[in-house]
């Protein structure tokens, strides 16, 4: 019999992040199915978060809907993003999306790249 327990989403958005994503999507001249979030090997700390608008969900994307925003998570990034909260912060000199990731172990000085340790398999299995 299938496990009927609900599982927590891979990631969540703050109100500020959801509002900003909705505003950007509203200005798009193309249809947008959601915001695709992933990671890639880059930068001095080893990895960077990626974000792009997707016209359709990929076959293996993890789909998270939070605060009226659909987030499509690249399947290769799920183990690195479990428990992450995406925020949008503004200050006098910048405005940016910020990832509050419990799996992040360090970041470079410029803030462009991070080191992330994937979630251990037994914890990930609890999410499946």
Automatic annotation (TrEMBL):
What the entry lists under InterPro entries is as follows:
ATAP, ATAP_core_dom, Fe-S_cluster_asmbl/transfer, HesB-like_dom_sf, SufA_proteobacteria
Q: Name one GO biological process term.
A: iron-sulfur cluster assembly
Domain Core, residue spans: 11-112
Q: Which GO terms describe its molecular function?
A: 2 iron, 2 sulfur cluster binding
Q: Which GO terms describe its cellular component?
A: cytosol
Pfam assignment, any one: Fe-S_biosyn
- Matching NCBIfam families, A to Z? iron-sulfur cluster assembly accessory protein, sufA_proteo
Q: Which family does it belong to?
A: Belongs to the HesB/IscA family.
- Protein's name according to its UniProt entry: Iron-sulfur cluster assembly accessory protein
